[in-house]
Amino acid sequence: MRAIVYQGPGTVAVADVPPPQLEGPRDALVRVALAGICGTDLHVITGEFPGIQPGAIIGHEFAGEVMAVGSAVVRFKVGDKVMASDFTACGHCRCCGRGDHWECAERAFFGTGTSFGPPLPGAQAEIVRVPHADTTLGPIPAGCTDEAAILLGDNLATGWAAVERSALLPGEIVAVIGGGTVGQLASLSAQAAGAGAIIVVEPSEARRAFARANGGLSASPEEARALVNRLTDGEGVDVVIEAVGGATALTAAFDLVRRRGRIISVGAHAAESWPFPLAKSFANELTLGFAIGDSIRLRPRLLSLIMTGALDPTVVVDCRIGFAAAPRAYADLRAQRVMKAVIDPRM
After folding, report:
1. How far apart are the first and last CA of the chain?
2. Could you give the CA distance from residue 261 to residue 131 in angstroms, rounded to a whole number?
3. Which of 125, 171, 198, 273 is the most exposed place for a label (fewest CB within 10 A)?
4. Could you tell me which residue ranges the Enoyl reductase (ER) domain spans (predicted)?
5. CB proximity list for 1: less than 8 A, separation 6 or greater
6. Which domains are assigned to the chain?
């Protein structure tokens, strides 16, 4: 079968690889109808996360049709249309029982090496093996597109998790640092949750324009504090969502938040440490939190928002390609020439 594989730092290629097989009774095989390229994939192929080996299939966003199930799978049968979380969880442990699926001891993250669990071949392929299928997969209801389904599996779940973790109150003002896919979906999520105003802080004018066209305000990093001051009488925003990853963006959040405000980071971080502004955080009673999108927990709520038309995540998709164009799409994403690319194996 065809798949997108990691070749070395910064390089991917289309390759013919052996198709996966069922390896356990709780596995399913899914024929991929659509796969996404995520900002996290860019971190993976540049070598920021350990354990990715040349030849490994990458990607963690997909939707498709069940083509085989193990003997212990009870929720799905061959022919079912399904979406997937970007990681697996057992569904039975204490963490899963309280909705903390990311903390499951049996977690594996599709296509990211060994950074977040044992290696698991990725989703940018014609067929994907899905462990713990009854938990990891969810049905795609009639009226939900494959594009919406793959975004719900990671990017939308991440944007919504940031808003949920921030305990946003109606009318509060939010700054989102980073105007990529997750940042834009965090902006849309904050709007759906009742934010009074959202400022997307982003150096790219094209991405700032996208934020403005989709209900937000925008500012370059250099202009952000001045706009915040105008909206808040100089106090700072109630919530900052950091959606870039890395020390620079996270440090910038502390310059935008009000006293007793909240900072939530959903950018993918690989560095082991970061110079935390401890004295300022103590004096201003700041709250810093981190969140990872858990579509297993959030699927029912987000599907309701999508199906009622309250939130349309597919507005971020601006590149639809087949396998042959995937290496170029990775380069375009890295250069910010496109925002969100999806791969159709049938093209």
Report:
1. 14
2. 40
3. 273
4. 10-343
5. 16, 17, 18, 19, 125, 126, 127
6. 2-154+294-343 (3.90.180.10), 159-290 (3.40.50.720)
